């Protein structure tokens, strides 16, 4: 197959929030660039789907929090409509099949479990402030914290069933993996990156506060509108050749000469690219050590958010496997939208069931909490991000134990003419859309400075 | 670039011990096959180098143990000369710059450290017998053991400085990574796979007992001699397409239609191949969770094994960084060959120093123990396996915490017409040449059965 030849200043690989943010900054600076995207759409781990009845649902990242300034800047610039995630009424807590309801932020538990949980979260929040975002490996106890799993820390610091289960459900919802898969140091860095664990878990005031009326992909399309002619879809990059003055980037159908390339991909996916000049050893081995989580979103759409009439918030935390956490994502004047998350190992099991089984289980779980009305949605859809070849999982690549201290220093270091973006390289809101924007802008700045 | 077209029954990817073992079995059964190797040599993580003075040194895997029956079978079949690794005289133990010498297998330590170490190893050996080799995730305590790092277990079970340090040096020598990087379950599986930790650490009676006079690559070349026309070097496989009746395998210059393909690669490296039909999700995510270790071998060659005249065995265990463990690999009637290992994080640091510095440090370390004669070798060479693009590290891919229990069940499961070999998939002697042979034979048997 012959390839079309192109020349540009900078090639950007990946049209998610990170890649588009890099492109946007280069565009504003008058630099020439081309953006190659493997899929037939922009968005990466952000993907908004229109259901048969017209309802828009975000199958990937969707929320923004009040402290996520970069994405709020885009939101204001493009005058995109947002709304607050429903956060009134009775929340449900269900442990060992006993349903308790409560209002506000303090879950209904016996006092001992409640104190246990509160102390655990406080302890984690206190530790996370000791992890410098730009260099987690320099924390005074970095070695020690990188040598134990988060699971080990939880077992030592949280003792009661309900508190421990709450911690695990919270951690799985935040990281899309089991607490055993990541080190305490990674957990502390990640929490600090977004403020603290409370901020990552909260709706109002936290990372789940605000939603986009037209979905999170729409904002990205607006941001990319002025340079959409520079974006080439269905162009997975196969290899990169470096020479003294620049790079040659090859997809199956394009060959692009450029001075710089920005890889705006999850670290694990960089392994799919053949680097004709091998990368620095530590970089290659880092890519082997940031496995992607597994997250699944299950939406049930109803004519009305009927649970609100019953006084419920739509928020459930439950130890009934595999559906642990739900939210009410109903748009203003939209149909009732309940979202159940399935995370980590539960997502890997759940996606292997038939679509009919998954639908049946989600609906019957909702019926368990909200009654028979839940069995008659107008639509149901779900999405598991480990299905996506060009994401490899979701939400993000997490450092495995022992990796931050050994490989953290090369995370953002350019390799010759190759620069690195992607939410995994962000200082603030690592793992979120906001962090992706930060990373793309930072990589573009590196390119512009040279 | 146009590709030459080929047809065969089975394509094998990777000409290490696993790939050659698979080829050998197919060859014996009269099946047609082609073997594609990315490098310009066969051997994979086995590589024998001839120094300027003619001395042969194994830069990669080299030893075989008495219980490694498959590689002994090849050794006898090809009547390859072997010799026992020198294991007489005084061993050196050096902690906190105090040198102690001892003979035999019991290190010279104060009784408390010695008991502490003995109990620690015994405890680990006892636990490892509870891990079924064919299904480690079914061990009664699999979840618990997969949730903690080996480092956490050592800290809890071994208390004195010398015992703990000895454990870490032993673990690093066995796994080529830090104890923090792997779960207890992985460590137990791996030790059980080779018998127990004692067997993995021992010279006489253990995994370091016997060496090949002409090196470990020579045996492989003999085994491959009858089908060397089927081996294509410098053919890194770029993509694999599956259809109902078989596969199409593409390198840059070849396109091969076949009924089956055997991938005899480290799991992490499978990510370099583009699978046109995405692999089962769990398989893809498994590949993200078996990072390669980092091992470095440093050889100093002398006219005579002069340390023997001083009564030394050539075996050193030392807490002086980065050179922790040495062996005397002198061949019968050969020049004196001392081998120092650098492992895990120490290897990653050491390879970044200049070749002159590395030479200087290794020799001065040897001089510290054996006197000035060590400063005048006839040759010096070293090799770090993270430099090798088509190994990605060494010795093997290790399961990260939380991975065996979630992903172990798909380790060997064929994906359509794709079968999996490589020492990481072995039941016995996982991580060793013997395990590689087992894995290649097993994958070939799968292909032959269909």
Description of the structure:
The structure is a homodimer of 450-residue chains. In chain A, helix 1 packs parallel to helix 15 and helix 3 crosses helix 7. Chain A is 33% helix and 22% strand. By secondary structure, chain A is an alpha/beta fold. The mean pLDDT of chain A is 97. The two termini of chain A are 35 Å apart. Chain A has a 7-stranded mixed β-sheet with strand order 8-7-17-18-19-16-20, sandwiched between helices. The first copy, chain A, contains 15 helices and 21 strands. Chain A has 3 domains: 143 residues, 3-Layer(bba) Sandwich (FAD/NAD(P)-binding domain); 107 residues, Alpha-Beta Complex (Polyamine Oxidase, Chain A, domain 2); 92 residues, Guanine Nucleotide Dissociation Inhibitor, domain 1, CATH 1.10.405.10. Chains A and B meet through helix 10 of A and helix 10 of B.
């Amino acid at each position: 197959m012959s390839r079309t030849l192109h020349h540009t200043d900078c090639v950007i690989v990946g049209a998610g929030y990170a890649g588009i943010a890099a492109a946007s900054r280069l565009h504003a600076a008058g630099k020439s660039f081309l953006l190659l995207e493997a899929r037939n759409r922009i968005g990466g781990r952000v993907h908004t789907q229109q259901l048969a009845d017209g309802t828009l649902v975000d199958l990937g990242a969707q929320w923004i929090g009040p402290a996520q300034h970069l994405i709020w800047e885009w939101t204001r610039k493009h005058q995109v409509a947002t709304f607050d995630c429903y956060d009134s009424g009775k929340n449900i807590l269900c442990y060992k099949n006993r349903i308790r309801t409560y209002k506000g932020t303090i879950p209904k538990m016996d006092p001992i479990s409640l104190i246990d949980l509160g102390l655990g979260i406080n302890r984690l929040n206190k530790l996370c402030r000791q992890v410098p975002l730009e260099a987690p490996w320099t924390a005074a106890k970095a070695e020690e914290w990188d040598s134990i799993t988060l699971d080990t820390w939880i077992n030592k610091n949280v003792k009661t069933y309900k508190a421990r289960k709450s911690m695990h459900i919270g951690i799985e919802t935040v990281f899309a993996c089991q607490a055993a898969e990541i080190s305490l140091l990674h957990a502390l860095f990640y929490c600090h990156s977004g403020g603290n664990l409370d901020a990552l878990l909260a709706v109002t005031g936290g990372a789940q506060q605000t939603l986009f009326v037209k979905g999170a992909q729409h904002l990205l399309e607006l941001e990319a509108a002025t340079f959409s002619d520079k974006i080439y879809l269905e162009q997975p990059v196969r290899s990169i050749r470096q020479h003294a003055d620049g790079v040659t980037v090859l997809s199956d159908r394009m060959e692009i000469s450029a001075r710089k390339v920005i890889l705006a991909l999850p670290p694990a996916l960089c392994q799919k690219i053949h680097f004709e000049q091998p990368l620095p050893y530590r970089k290659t081995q880092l890519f082997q050590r940031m496995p992607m989580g597994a997250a699944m979103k299950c939406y049930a759409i109803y004519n009305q958010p009927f649970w609100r009439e019953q006084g419920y918030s739509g928020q459930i935390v439950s130890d009934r496997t595999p559906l642990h956490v739900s939210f009410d994502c109903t748009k203003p004047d939209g149909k009732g939208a309940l979202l159940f998350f399935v995370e980590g190992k539960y997502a890997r099991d759940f996606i292997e069931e038939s679509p009919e089984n998954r639908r049946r289980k989600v609906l019957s779980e909702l019926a368990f909490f909200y009654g028979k009305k839940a069995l008659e949605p107008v639509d149901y859809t779900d999405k598991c991000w480990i299905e996506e070849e060009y994401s490899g999982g979701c939400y993000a690549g997490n450092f495995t134990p022992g990796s931050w201290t050994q490989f953290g220093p090369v995370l953002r270091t350019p390799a010759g003419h190759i620069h690195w973006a992607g939410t995994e390289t962000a200082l603030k809101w690592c793992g979120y859309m906001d962090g992706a924007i930060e990373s793309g802008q930072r990589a573009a700045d590196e390119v512009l400075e040279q």
